[in-house]
What does this fold into?
Amino acid sequence: MIYFDNNDTTQLHPDVLEAMLPFFKEKYANPASLHNMGLEADSAVDEAREKVAGLIGAKPKELIFTSGATESNNLAIMGSARARSKRKHLIISAVEHASVLNIAKRLEGEGYRVTKLPVDGLGYVSPDSLRDAIDEDTFLVSIIHANHEIGVIQDIKTLADITHERGAWFHTDAAQALGKIPFIVGDLGVDFASFNGHKLHGPKGVGGLFINRKTRPRRLMEGAPQEFELRPGTENVPGIIGFAKAIEIAVRDREEVAAYLKPLVKRLADGLSAIPHTFLNGPPPEERLPGNLNVTMLYIEGEAILMHLSNREICVSSGSACSSKSLTPSPVLTAIGLIHEEAHGAIRFSLSRFNTIEEVEEVIKKTVDVVELLRSMTAFIPELHSERQGGKGFYRER
Amino acid sequence: MALKYSTKVIEHFTQPQNVGEIPDADAMATEGSPACGDMITYTLKINPETKVVEDVRFRSFGCASNIATASMTTLLAKGKTINEIKKLKHRDITQALDGLPAVKMHCSVLAIDALKSAVHKWEIDHGMIEDKIYKLDYDGVLESLKNCLNPRTGISIVENRLINKLEVEPEAGSVFIELKLCEMDEMYVEAIEEEIREKVQAIPGVKIVLVQFKACEHSG
It folds into this structure.
């Protein structure tokens, strides 16, 4: 099996598993307990917190552990809305993850004003559009750091600075960013940042939220006073240990892994660009999140491509409406200007350090076969059915 | 939760039957649209004496279940008279495929509609019937809406009683539809609206289609 779906989730790093095991087997106590076993677990959680905080340039008190980036996004956004209840305006971008989009929707239902900043043809948010949208009523700006679908990396520092000029808080969903691109909270100027472990060869069900000590969101759940009274519930100790280990490895090896992935992604892009009527969604490979590639193959449908690849032992994902549960195409792809027929044929290939150049060659070969097969039977006649006439190059413009 | 297809669906997706087109076809129809991401074209050979569909082939732009339902439809259609084909229901196809996920049920509607549309065209060409089209009145629009499925249940929005209000003004060419959706159906708002527009706009004379959604009120 060739796994090219690493922006979805990843395999556990063997060292991460190793680090977690004792906390399942022997060191299973509750960190809140006062006996020696409890204290041992508590120290392990403290160490993990210090480690992760250190790696992102934060103080240990500025990091809480959560169940993942979805919960972190909820806490940052909803918790800020509750904490700053006089301000009723939220700004997000058009290329956010579903967790951010849907919290925004809920706030809108509660009477909040929500501005969704548009993006250009490559997926970039323009700082000017933020300047125009932000006002004294804005409590939070939330912009995704590295996009999960098209790998576009936003200029977080500039956006955060504009936000602070107007007294609002700034949150970034860094689920795909931490460990893959440089990430130091001070350099980025963010007030909140959401992380998770399983995109980085860590365990699922655990993540973190950086909370700048100058801010304080309102907690969303009630319970015992864990995580500085921001997130109740007994700590997921093995998960936290694994999360910290995964981030430690990812940050340590970041440059090496990025350098390793570069020629692989370049080769994949070159190989796929040789298929007629295909184009890249998002920025060129050298600008995007390491390992991420998203390509539209016109006149055929993504779910069918995905399933034929799956039958050929290749795992990818698709932005097609048919593979989404709501039957609507990916909002990220429509935000960068794709019309439906173009979004339907979008396939995301996302690589990790565990993939090889041999796998890339195999994926190119099999993708060529599948595209040829599906095009040979397609009912889509471009001259007759396409709403967008005229050819385009593989690489898009802004 | 991932979509679960039956073994039969996977079989017909990976090895579709009767793919392609008949060069000297007697009948042909394309249904669906690239925007919706599913489209089927059938070509048919029909014996004018016996009115038996002697051969049928398909082309598909769509997902795995689009391909599988089209493939199964060709198997069910071959050897049948056009009267027998008119009696085929989309459930016959899904049954033959050992079921489809509710969210994919609309594929079987498209697969059967496109086939019937080809047969229908053939009948018109042979002067056997007048062109039957949905009329721009209350009943005509309601009839066309019976072909729109609720992706959550795989059942028509009419049968599911999602239509709260329907107003048709034939002179102005305007159709107003208000749907009542419960929270579980809310994620399908865009998909349902798109399907309604596609079906209603196909009725001759329709100029404006207004679709509105109303949330269900929960008691208590």
